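The instructor's notes for this session suggest beginning with a concrete chain rather than abstract definitions. Hand out the sequence below and ask the class to guess, before any prediction is shown, which regions might be ordered.
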Amino acid sequence: MATRFGILTGGGDCPGLNAAIRALVRRADQDNVTTFGFRNGWQGVLDLEAEQLTTASTRGLLHRGGTVLGTSRVDPYRERNGVRRIHEALEIHRLDGFVVIGGEGTLSAAARLHADEGIPVVGIPKTIDNDVANTELTIGFLTAVATATEAVDRLHSTAESHNRVMVLEVMGRHAGWIATFAGMAGGADAILIPEVPFDIEAVGRHLKHRAGVGRDFSIVVVAEGAEPVPDTMAMPVHPTDEFGRPVLGGIGHTIAREIERRTGFPARVTQLGHVQRGGSPVPMDRTIATRMGVAAAELAVADEWGKMTAYQSSLVIPVDLEEVAGQHKGVPESLFRVAEVFFG
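After discussion, reveal the predicted structure:
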């Protein structure tokens, strides 16, 4: 039975992280297990920046967005002596292991640390992109959808007032979950996602058809990672970040210019950006985060390392971290076809 474990949040922030931290600490306290919070993801582990967490110190966190522990995208495998320094943190703080709350990148690193280096880890999936494999929902996703849906609702009124096409760009590098859910919930007239290459000519024809039957405004929701059918539309060249990934953002403006050119309709762009990450978590995110936090604490206390808490069929169950590492969960074609029924 574990008696001490560390907690860290890695990757981008999202609503619900604090609810998970609160649940982890509360459940551990019930078994007299000591928890330590590490600052700024794996960076805090490498730098030995930790503080003991208690039920008292984590009160009032349930409704708060962001993460009180701070976060970063530090990958211990890219840092000097990273693995050795993690082992040192375990020894110095006398920890039995770590509970890591993160997205696909953070969880993949955790899986590798457990499988290859013998570092005891339990994972909790969080990302507004909802692209972690083997879980139907991730912490933060539903709050981001609520924010994006509200934006679609608000754009309807201004689009109708000015007979415009309104293009809403939302997050989604590899997966179009936010765009699909918010587009469906808000009644968007077209949804463009990374999983389904779009034909801008077909989009233009669709918008002109709407105008022809008296619908003089339209809403187009586009995920930042959406791509056109090859050789159908010029795309901007994006700079890359320190990990070699394209720095996305701005496809909404490209889409709007193409729509104006091909249809003659005025088009305006709203780019939500980091607004989707902020704010208080919706009730379902608070509930999922709480359930996953409790489940993860129970796994850690029972020394059941190498697992991730997953939401499947309304249950929170453990799955092997190795089954999650390196996998992206995209929007299934069947769901996108449901959304397409309303593109008219």
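Then share the key points. The chain has a mean pLDDT of 94. The longest helix spans residues 141-162.
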